[in-house]
């Protein structure tokens, strides 16, 4: 058994990103939500989109634009469902850019910029919060979460089919890569405990996933918007390296995560 402490939480840690490529990925997520909503509950699509637009607009209006706020020429990528709602597409892009700034140009790649990992996390997690909250406000919390669960399950299924886990992956290498990424991003203070080379447990005492949403004072929706996906059965279905949690920082003093190689440990 090997225990290590990682003091990595740093809201000022910088991360490198291609803003437009990242934004296109986020727009793709929004498109997937609307696509699946159209399949599962088409009668509320229009009301949902308008409700979501209102929530996003309200937050944009409250954001003080920081020095270095950039408006990049938009990539003309087509999204079958999102493009039916140009105002939502425009506001989503504006929301993401407003939160992720300030940025400065990378010295190593002309297409990339440096931004605080905290701001980057805030941008995509808060727009996810507004998506989930809109379901809860339209349908009631219980029914809204049920519908969101169906949509998220489908999205995870599609993503896992498109990007399957490589069979040569090991739990040790997987977790070493995760630790390196979390620390470079400044995401969390955490402790790791390797039970053996195929199983490791983490305790997180701080994490961006909680910090960027805690001002909503809405731990249930914050959890569904940020951490819930990894707790759904579908998340582990096609994975060799599986993950399990018993609690998160949204509802407790710490978050725990257990990673194990299912080819070794059932």
How would you concisely characterize the structure shown here?
With 266 residues, this protein is α+β, with helices and mostly antiparallel strands. The chain is built from 9 helices and 8 strands.
SSE layout:
Layout: E1 2-7, E2 14-17, H1 19-40, H2 45-62, H3 86-100, E3 104-105, E4 113-116, H4 117-139, H5 141-162, H6 171-185, E5 188-196, E6 199-207, H7 208-211, H8 219-226, H9 233-237, E7 241-244, E8 255-261
Antiparallel strand pairs: 1-5, 2-4, 3-4, 5-6, 6-8, 7-8
Describe the fold and architecture.
With 266 residues, this protein is α+β, with helices and mostly antiparallel strands. It starts with a strand and ends in a 5-residue tail after the last strand. The chain has two domains: 2-12 and 169-261, no CATH class; 14-162, no CATH class. 50% of the residues lie in helices and 17% in strands. The protein has a five-stranded antiparallel β-sheet with strand order 1-5-6-8-7. A three-stranded antiparallel β-sheet has the order 2-4-3. Helix 1 crosses helix 3, helix 1 (19-40) crosses helix 5 (141-162) and helix 3 packs antiparallel against helix 4 (117-139). The protein is globular.
Describe this protein with a few key phrases:
2 domains, five-stranded antiparallel sheet, 266 residues, alpha+beta, 9 helices
Distance between the termini: 19 Å
Give the total of domains: 2
Relative strand content: 15-25%
Indicate the percent of residues in helices.
40-55%
Give helix and strand order, one letter per element, not per position. EEHHHEEHHHEEHHHEE
Instruction: Please list the strands of the largest sheet in the order they lie side by side.
Output: 1-5-6-8-7
Structural class: alpha+beta
The outline comes out as globular
Give Rg in angstroms: 19 Å
Main sheet record: 5 strands, antiparallel
**Chain-averaged pLDDT:** 94
Low-confidence stretches at least 5 residues in length (pLDDT < 50)? none
The total count of helices amounts to: 9
Number of strands: 8
């Amino acid at each position: 058994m090997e225990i290590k402490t990682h003091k990595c939480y740093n809201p000022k840690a910088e991360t490198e990103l291609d803003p437009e490529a990242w934004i296109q990925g986020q727009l793709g997520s929004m498109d997937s939500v609307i696509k699946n909503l159209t399949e599962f509950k088409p009668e509320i699509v229009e009301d949902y989109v308008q409700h979501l637009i209102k929530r996003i607009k309200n937050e944009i209006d409250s954001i003080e634009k920081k020095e270095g706020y950039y408006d990049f020429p938009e990539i003309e990528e087509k999204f079958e469902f999102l493009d039916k709602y140009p105002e939502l597409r425009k506001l989503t892009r504006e929301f993401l850019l407003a939160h992720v700034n300030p940025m400065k140009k990378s010295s190593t790649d002309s297409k990339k910029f440096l931004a605080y990992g905290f701001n980057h996390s805030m941008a995509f997690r808060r727009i996810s919060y507004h998506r989930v909250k809109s379901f809860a406000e339209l349908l009631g919390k219980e029914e809204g979460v049920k519908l969101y669960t169906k949509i998220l399950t489908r999205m995870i299924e599609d993503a896992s089919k498109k990007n399957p886990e490589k069979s040569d992956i090991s739990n040790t290498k997987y977790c070493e890569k995760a630790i390196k990424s979390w620390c470079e991003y400044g995401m969390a203070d955490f402790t790791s405990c390797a039970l053996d080379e195929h199983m490791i447990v983490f305790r997180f005492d701080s994490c961006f996933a909680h910090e960027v949403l805690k001002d909503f004072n809405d731990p249930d929706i914050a959890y569904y918007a940020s951490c819930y996906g990894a707790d759904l059965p579908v998340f582990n279905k096609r994975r060799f390296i599986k993950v399990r949690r018993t609690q998160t920082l949204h509802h407790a003093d710490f978050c725990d995560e257990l990673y194990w190689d299912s080819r070794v440990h059932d």
